[in-house]
Design a protein that fits this description.
The complex is a heterodimer of chains A (280) and B (471). Chain A is an alpha/beta fold and 280 residues long. Chain A has helices spanning 22-27, 68-74, 111-123, 143-149, 168-179, 192-204, 238-241, 252-259, 263-277, and strands spanning 2-9, 14-20, 33-37, 45-48, 51-53, 58-64, 81-82, 84-89, 101-107, 128-134, 152-157, 164-165, 183-189, 209-212, 228-231, 234-237, 244-246. In chain A, helix 3 (111-123) runs parallel beside helix 4 (143-149) and helix 5 (168-179) runs parallel beside helix 6 (192-204). In chain B, 35% of the residues lie in helices and 16% in strands. Classes of the chains: A alpha/beta (280), B alpha/beta (471). One flavin-adenine dinucleotide binds next to helix 10, helix 15, helix 17, helix 18 and helix 19 of chain B. The site of FE2/S2 (inorganic) cluster has 12 residues of chain A, from loops.
């Protein structure tokens, strides 16, 4: 059980929550995630740790409503208890003081998970260039926090409603075209298709790129294999071997196919929930 | 007091059968299959026991359960006495009575085997434990003791962790269990299905242990939230009982197609997350018309019988050896057969075939024949050249074993593991290479049995008590 201390709605579908979890906050490192079950009958939902405070004993999650579980979670309120909340899980990001610049790319909801990594990298004295992108200006989250955690920030939106018009990978290519030699490392987190194109862009310049994979998970501790991904021709369990992997080696098409595994059942569950709860 | 019958009569009588749910009915539900003995049935079965001294059955039991003594107490109609007799050496009788491979243990050793009619010790054990639970008969209360200042940390709440916790709590220690999942019980809750081991029984055992003052922190993954090193610092002793939960895969092409599961995932979704009750519970499970389960152990039987209950028209075991080599409990194989499970024996999968959407559609196999015995003494299966064939299937469930999950071990400095990642621990005491750390259960032996895990938990509790008492 973990109490929701604070809840904010950042867009039509994006929410942020601070959840009381002292021991998790103490142990959390950038790149790690938690798994929660909203209510007793619920499923296990993996979400990245977007921020945490040891002093105040909370962990922040930022999530987008995409189906039944995230919808149900978004309808829970401050003061309510989550049925289960476990973390931190996964391998932390491998952060260090790099020679050149570090580029952090966050796409859509993926902006949240790059925040703690950028923050840590900057603390360690890195020059952090963040590229954050979303479909439209309304969906662009955490801009202020990202600015705090970065040296430079480039904003892009698909429709040009804010910052550059276009996809984040185009911005990355533009950046690398002028200063590839100055860039030591790239992180890209967001929908699989965005990570895939970013990995291709980085590959054109022979730059190492880390991506954070979000396959369907169950336990999140290496006990079930639901989260299998293929990296460099080998099967890995994203929850314990990752979630971060070398973007050049990831089989993104398999990842996307595996994410669709329960599409029909998920749809059914969502519709049933909406009709029961009377939500549109 | 029930009548004691003459030896000649004992030899004449047959094993009292246990009534069970009709196979046609039970493939549509998750209720327990056997109903358990009635009082009369239990007495009738208990009467057949020869009360051997020394008793072969006790030799055969990994926990040395005092079999003839508890059976005699059943005849005295002293259920409390029988229960306490069993509890002396086995912390979880209601569970062991249901899931132990008795035919290889107590019943396999029973002298009545000579007549082909071993005493149904497992059924009697279950009878006593169930009746004790119904009547609210409790085990010894914890000792009011000065040891309470000594704190013990246990990692994992499977049978090894629970047994160790119970014994240490009885001795008055302050015990805390850390469990990764949101429910305690280990394989007993996430692996073994409801129709074989009702979760209410596991819950009852967990509640008893909590009543003894044991604290259980769920959602607490040691290795992440705290390291074993940190536990060693803040506790007087640490018992590692984190099981062997990591699933093995076949490493054949097509294993990452949609519709392919490890048995661990399949069973966890159904048992722990209650996918069998989707969409009342949110966790989905994708079960098609033809489901193949690869393997021949208890895990494979549980998966295939679960698939049948979840609506598979055909649920098929594919196993590379023959029926006699199947490691599953005899009763599970019989139950599976009665439920219409098909068996493709001497058959080995070599490739999983998928459609354009990345979903399983077929399984290519090769037929096998038995060659020379291997190190395990079982005859080694060898492929018959040119015997390849393809089965049309919607799901493939891989149940070929579990191995060690490294999360706990890599956070434990000075606790040695072997090359497979299992903790190295003394068989008699559970002592590891670290003076404050003990280990037991599947994480020491590799995937084994509930009773061996219970035994390891008890031995570790004894050794921890001895060590801490010396200080
Ligand atoms: C390590 C990790 C970190 C994540 N971090 C975040 C985060 O910080 N914020 C956020 O909004 N989301 C995050 N996700 C994704 C999030 O877990 C899913 O969106 C969520 O589980 C969907 O549940 P649902 O019932 O609402 O949707 P469903 O109805 O179950 O699914 C809707 C769609 O979401 C996708 N999906 C379903 N389950 C998962 C899953 N377990 N993981 C990924 N995609 C899934 C599928 O494509 C599916 O078709 C993360 C996933 C992982 C594995
Ligand atoms: C499907 C199935 C059917 C079986 N059928 C039978 C049967 O019929 N008869 C029989 O005798 N045996 C059977 N077994 C085997 C038996 O269940 C195991 O041998 C036994 O449960 C081992 O007990 P354990 O306490 O060592 O580990 P487990 O039962 O595996 O418990 C380990 C516990 O530790 C927890 N844990 C793991 N890592 C961490 C961590 N990092 N931090 C905190 N907690 C952690 C796990 O979540 C789990 O709860 C079966 C096994 C399976 C999988
Ligand atoms: S060996 Fe069989 S007959 Fe002899 S005491 Fe044990 S159960 Fe009874
Ligand atoms: S989610 Fe179960 S092994 Fe990764």
């Amino acid at each position: 059980m973990a109490k929701i201390l604070k809840k904010e709605q950042w867009s039509d579908t994006i929410f942020s929550m601070l959840v009381e979890a002292k021991d998790v906050a103490k142990a959390a490192k950038p790149g790690q995630f938690i798994i929660l079950i909203p209510k007793e009958h619920g499923e296990r939902v993996p979400l990245t740790i977007a921020d945490s405070s040891v002093n105040e004993g909370w962990v922040q999650i930022v999530f987008q409503v995409v189906g039944k579980s995230t919808l149900e979670l978004s309808r829970m309120n401050e003061g309510e208890e989550l049925f289960s909340f476990v973390g931190p899980l996964g391998m932390p990001s491998e952060v260090e003081k790099f020679q050149g610049k570090v580029v952090m790319i966050g796409g859509g909801i993926g902006i949240a998970p790059i925040h703690p990594i950028a923050k840590k990298l900057k603390e360690m004295g890195n020059h952090v260039v963040s590229i954050i992108g979303a479909k439209t200006a309304d969906l662009l989250i955490m801009e202020d926090k990202i600015r705090e955690a970065s040296t430079e920030v480039i904003v892009a939106t698909d429709d040009g409603s804010k910052g550059k018009k276009g996809f984040v990978n185009a911005v990355l290519e533009e950046l690398l075209a002028t200063e590839a030699d100055n860039v030591s490392k790239i992180w890209a987190i967001g929908p699989p298709i965005m990570m895939k194109v970013c990995a291709i862009s980085a590959g054109k310049f022979n730059k190492p790129i880390i991506v954070s994979l979000n396959p369907i998970m169950v336990d999140g501790t290496g006990m079930c294999g639901a989260c299998r991904v293929t990296v460099g021709g080998q099967t890995k369990f994203a929850c314990v071997d990752g979630p971060e992997f070398d973007g050049a080696l990831v089989d993104f098409d398999e990842l996307m196919a595996r994410q669709r595994q329960y599409k029909e059942l998920e749809q059914k569950a969502l519709e049933l929930y909406k009709s029961k709860e009377g939500v549109a | 007091m029930a009548e004691r019958i003459k030896a000649s009569e004992k030899f004449k009588r047959d094993r009292v059968p246990m009534k069970e749910q009709d196979p046609k009915e039970r493939i549509n539900n998750f209720n327990e299959v056997p109903y358990g003995y009635s009082f009369e049935e239990a007495i009738k079965e208990a009467q057949r026991c020869l009360q051997c001294k020394p008793a072969a059955c006790v030799e055969g039991c990994p926990a040395d359960v005092h079999v003839p003594e508890f059976i005699d107490k059943i005849l005295d109609e002293d259920i409390e006495g029988a229960f306490k007799e069993i509890k002396l050496t086995n912390a979880l009788p209601a569970i062991c009575g249901r899931v132990c491979p008795q035919e290889e243990q107590c019943e396999g050793a029973c002298v009545m085997n000579k007549k082909g009619k071993p005493i149904a010790i497992g059924r009697l054990e279950r009878f006593v434990a169930d009746l004790a639970r119904d009547k609210g008969i409790l085990d010894e209360p914890p000792a009011e003791s000065s040891k309470a200042s000594k704190r013990i940390a246990i990692v994992g709440s499977g049978p090894a962790g629970l047994a160790c916790a119970a014994d240490l709590a009885k001795l008055g220690y302050d015990v805390t269990i850390f469990e990764a999942l949101h429910k305690p019980g280990g394989v007993l809750v996430y692996g073994i299905p409801e129709f074989r081991l009702p979760k209410a029984i596991v819950q009852y055992e967990v509640d008893q242990i909590k009543k003894m003052g044991v604290k259980i922190y769920t959602d607490y993954v040691i290795g992440y939230i705290k390291t074993v090193d940190e536990l060693i610092e803040s506790y007087d002793a640490v018992f590692l009982a984190n099981g062997a939960g990591a699933p093995s895969f076949l490493r054949i092409p097509g294993e990452n197609l949609n519709g392919v599961y490890s048995a661990s995932e399949f069973l966890t979704r159904s048992n722990l997350m209650r996918a069998f009750d989707f969409p009342n519970y949110d966790t989905p499970l994708d079960v098609g018309k033809r489901v193949v389960v690869i393997g021949g152990g208890n895990v494979a039987m549980d998966a295939v019988r679960t698939a049948k209950r979840l609506g598979a028209e055909e649920a098929i075991i594919v196993y590379r050896r023959s029926r006699t080599e199947m490691p599953a409990r005899a009763e599970e194989i019989e139950h599976a057969e009665a439920e219409g499970i098909q068996f493709e024996l001497l058959t080995n999968p070599i490739k999983i075939l998928g459609d354009e959407n990345g979903k399983v559609k077929g399984l290519e196999c090769v037929r096998m024949e038995l060659g020379e015995p291997d190190e395990s003494g079982r005859r080694r299966p060898v492929p018959i050249e040119g015997s390849n064939f393809v089965m049309d299937v919607d799901n493939v469930i891989v149940a070929i074993g579990q191995n060690a999950n490294p999360i706990v071990a890599r956070s434990a400095t000075g606790v040695e593991t072997n090359k497979w990642g299992y903790f190295v621990a003394d068989e008699e005491t559970g002592k590891t290479t670290h003076p404050k750390v003990w280990a037991g259960g599947d994480i020491v032996t590799g995937a084994a049995t509930v009773i061996l895990a219970v035994g390891a938990g008890k031995k570790a509790a004894k050794s921890i008590h001895e060590t801490l008492s010396q200080k």
